[in-house]
Amino acid sequence: MLITKRINNNVAMAQDSDGNELVVFGKGLGFRKPPYELEETSQIHRVFRNVNDDLLKSINSISGEVIGVAMDIVRLAEVELDCRLNPNLYLTLADHLQFAAERFADGIVMENPLAADIPLVYPDEFELGKTGLAFMRNVTGLELPESEACSIALHILNAEGRGAKRANSARMVQKTLKIVDDVTAIVNAKMFPCGGGLDKTSHAYVRFVAHLKFLVKRLEGVDEHQEAKLPLLMDVAKGYPRAMSCSKAISRYFRREHGWKLTDEERFYLLMYLIKLEN
């Protein structure tokens, strides 16, 4: 591959063997004066083949430092999550980080409305978001607010997997977060009618949210699941009437709002997690 023009330290124009114009992302591609032949292609992390003025304008608006941070975040996320992320994440995440840095420099801090839910429902991606903020601090010196960790997490979530049934599409993320909020409201109303409510910092609640996330994934048909009959359900329910009432209310919610009918096994495990919340 022939590197023909430096855009910044981590992005360059190039030509493939057929003479097609490319934009390539890779750490240090712009350090060497072009033109030069790049023989070690493992240095390249992303190739854009449909080069146009809009793509070049977008790339030119992002600093090389921020593009480097975005590449580090994407590579770490692919290792930590053990998955291949959408290759466009390099550009979309870098563009977001650049805009966030410019807002911060102007004294503008935007709160993420999902900031309370993302750490609970998607803790792995949120931790990657926090690491991304550390990368930004180390490279640019900017101390971006923690709400930006949620934004980075959302970018990663939207890039996980491919195809119409991927669990972490933008639609599924939004749907899962809304369901967690709705079900939490049901639990508070049914199990804590006198006030107080759920302790969202408790281990029981964190496990309950994790269970909800995978339940939603299964009900959406992302995971195949074989139903198992559990005759214990009614026996257990007798000792925990409040949790059972809450379980029924959640089951009605799933059926009314999403058209999902819980199996006996799903109702049983939902009841088990509700009992832990009550104790």
TrEMBL record:
BP-aspect Gene Ontology terms: regulation of DNA-templated transcription
This protein's record includes keyword ATP-binding: no
SUPFAM superfamilies named in the record: PTS-regulatory domain, PRD (SSF63520), SacY-like RNA-binding domain (SSF50151)
PRD domain ranges (all copies): 61-166, 167-279
UniProt-recorded Gene Ontology molecular function terms: RNA binding
SMART domains: CAT_RBD (SM01061)
Pfam family, one: PRD
Keywords (A to Z) from UniProt: Repeat
Keyword match Repeat: yes
PROSITE patterns: PRD_2
InterPro entries the record matches: BglG_antiterminators, CAT_RNA-bd_dom, CAT_RNA-bd_dom_sf, PRD, PRD_sf
Name the UniProt record assigns to this protein: Transcription antiterminator LicT
Source organism of this protein record: Collinsella aerofaciens
Lineage: Bacteria, Bacillati, Actinomycetota, Coriobacteriia, Coriobacteriales
